[in-house]
Design brief:
With 415 residues, the protein is mostly beta strands. It folds into two domains: 94 residues, Immunoglobulin-like; 295 residues, 7 Propeller (Methylamine Dehydrogenase, Chain H), CATH 2.130.10.10. Helices cover 5% and strands 46% of the residues. It is built from two helices and 35 strands. The protein has a four-stranded antiparallel β-sheet with strand order 1-28-27-26, with no helix packed on it. A four-stranded antiparallel β-sheet has the order 2-3-4-5, with no helix packed on it. A hairpin with a 2-residue loop joins β18 and β19. The chain starts with 7 loop residues before the first helix and ends with a strand.
């Protein structure tokens, strides 16, 4: 193997890529927190934790507590819009801030008290908005509507066969509710007063699937993550559902987030995935992220994607390119138009060649020393996959060249 060193300036730049562009990086200040909710509002990021709300105004570089007016309680859900931020609590109902998190005020009028502890409110699983109305789902109490910015709430549960509602989403003028206890998905039309079941196509397994943990809407479609059955999507307002978890190796989908044309999915133990084709297929993007740790929430601000983990705080990475690495089907259909590209996958790497090319894939350590050469030959057009090189755990620079194309990435290898 030829001993070739990279200049330190290039290594330093590529290390920055590894930390903030190609890999997840843990933000400082919340390292041990259980982060249950994230929301972005006007360049600020709010994180809901077991110790209240934390705020970052510098893209997650630092976090400060923003709990004035909040009781000592777990924040389960967050929502933002119209100049206000709403926090759904474990025992204390709903609080609102109209001062960028400087102070919070209880907005619980009309919400039921807990049956056992009359000084408490049921857990607020999610808060959603359609612009003029707010909706809140309360554990074992169903769904509540506010038409005055949270000043008062009224139950809207007619037609629900269970009031154990985990998730809410607004799509096409309709409100969707994801239920536990085998309830599945319900829809409330904009002009209706009664919920209707919308479960056609959802696979049923006793006590498990039909329990919907999260919902997300975007591009005229709705996506449902289930407790034990993976992911489903619908393009007709819930009339018909189809499985859509190809490439997502997880039965429990714990978070869904739509950002422009992309959909991001967080899982209970398999990291984060992205889909660029309306959830038809998924690609893992968990390089640098803790394994076997639940991703509880996702959000994006500008060009950065944030993930809240159970007991591991907030992590961030740059939003991935919206153009995915070409699939085999894409190459077969139009090899001349497919793009060169390389990406990581669990335990290895994959790369695409739109035409026969001389290919070189080598790895450098962070001192600039060449430590592995995994490919050095001419290959035909196609989609290739390889095991990761047998290197010690750590960060490396991967250099991929095919014809006149060149791509360098910071990657992390774990053993």
């Amino acid at each position: 193997m030829k001993k070739t060193n990279l200049p330190w300036s290039a290594i330093f730049g590529l290390l920055m890529v590894a930390q903030s562009h190609g890999e997840w990086v843990q933000t400082t200040g919340l390292a041990g927190q259980v982060v249950r909710a994230l929301v972005a509002e006007d360049k600020a990021i709010y994180a809901g934790t077991d110790d209240g709300v934390f705020l970052s105004v510098n893209n997650g570089n630092t976090w400060t507590a923003a709990n004035t007016g909040l009781p000592k309680d777990t924040v389960v859900s967050l929502s933002a819009g119209g100049g206000a931020v709403f926090a759904g609590m474990l025992h204390s109902g709903i609080f609102a801030s109209v001062s960028d998190g400087d102070s919070w005020t209880a907005v619980n009028q009309g919400l039921p008290h807990d049956a056992v502890d009359t000084n408490s409110y049921p857990q607020i699983n999610q808060i959603a908005s359609d612009g003029s109305r707010l909706y809140a789902s309360a554990l074992r109490k169903g769904v509540f509507l506010s038409q005055n910015g949270g000043a008062s709430w009224n139950p809207i549960n007619t037609g629900l066969t269970t009031t154990n509602i985990f998730a809410l989403a607004v799509s096409g003028g309709n409100l969707f509710a994801g239920a536990g206890s085998g309830g599945g998905v319900f829809v409330l039309s904009n002009s209706g007063a009664t919920w209707q079941a919308a479960n056609n196509g959802l696979t049923y397994t006793q006590g498990m699937v039909y329990s919907v943990s999260t919902l997300a809407a975007g591009s005229g479609r709705l996506y449902a993550g289930t407790v034990a059955g993976g992911l489903y999507r619908t393009a007709d307002n819930g009339d018909n559902w189809a499985e859509s978890g190809q490439g997502m190796s997880a039965a429990l989908v714990t978070a869904l987030y739509v950002h422009g044309p992309d959909i991001f999915g967080g899982t209970s133990s398999n990291g984060v995935f992205v889909s660029t084709d309306n959830a038809a297929s998924w690609t893992e993007i968990d390089g640098g992220l803790f394994t076997n740790v639940a991703v509880l929430c996702l959000c994006a601000s500008d060009s950065t994607l944030f993930a809240g983990l159970y007991g591991r705080g907030v992590w961030r990475r740059s939003l991935p390119e919206t153009s995915p690495t070409p699939t085999a089907a894409m190459l077969e259909k139009s090899p001349a138009k497919a793009a060169y590209g390389i990406s990581s996958m669990p335990g290895g790497l994959r790369y695409a060649l739109p035409a026969t090319s001389p290919v070189s894939i080598v790895y450098y350590d962070l001192q600039g020393r060449l430590v592995a050469s995994v490919v050095n030959k001419i290959q035909s057009a196609g989609l290739y996959s390889l095991a990761a090189p047998s290197l010690p755990s750590g960060f490396y620079v991967r250099d991929f060249r095919a014809g006149s194309f060149a791509q360098r990435d910071g990657v992390r290898i774990t053993r």
